[in-house]
Amino acid sequence: VHHLRLVSFFSACTFHIPAAMADDDAAAAFARRVSRHFSVVCFDLDQCAVRRHSRGRLLRTELSAFVDDVSPDFVRAVPALIEQGVRLAITTHSDLGQHCASKPRGDGPNAVVLGDDLVHEVLQRAVPDHAHEFFVVAWRPKSHNAQEMDLGKRRHVRTVAAFYGVSIEDCILFDDDVSNCALTDVSEGRKF
Known about the structure:
The protein has helices at 24-35, 63-67, 72-83, 115-126, 154-164, 178-184; strands at 2-5, 40-43, 87-92, 134-138, 171-175. 31% of the residues lie in helices and 12% in strands. 42% of the residues are buried. The protein is globular. It is of the alpha/beta class.
């Protein structure tokens, strides 16, 4: 699998960079470049698709403000990637298994939104015309006593590749966490 810290392409993530996608033309150029090398793009949710972190404790009452921080570059990139035939995924460590008495699931005032629920809410609100195009892997290794082969986003990307019927070398991971990228890099293959 290939990986890049998402900040290399999107200004709205952790750092500001001068080559940010300022318009749809830049998004189209980005998508063409990606499609020449990869058939699947995996985006991290927190601090990539969304410019802040949910921290595994986002109250449902705070969901609208969280979605307001979706990266405009992500929103521009999604249709451009789809137009190039690139398939999409969200890979996150937010996990429904994190729900507990102090993090209840539901719609009440203390309800916390996690995992697939969080991702689908964000996609439906941020890219409603394309939300159905995403495959979602919401799995937190720490919550499942993961083995080394499943650390970082290794399991996530393997699952995405299997879902789309491609090799992991056909996938690229955009993630703000260098350790996720390093742990996921299981191949020397092509570089973007």
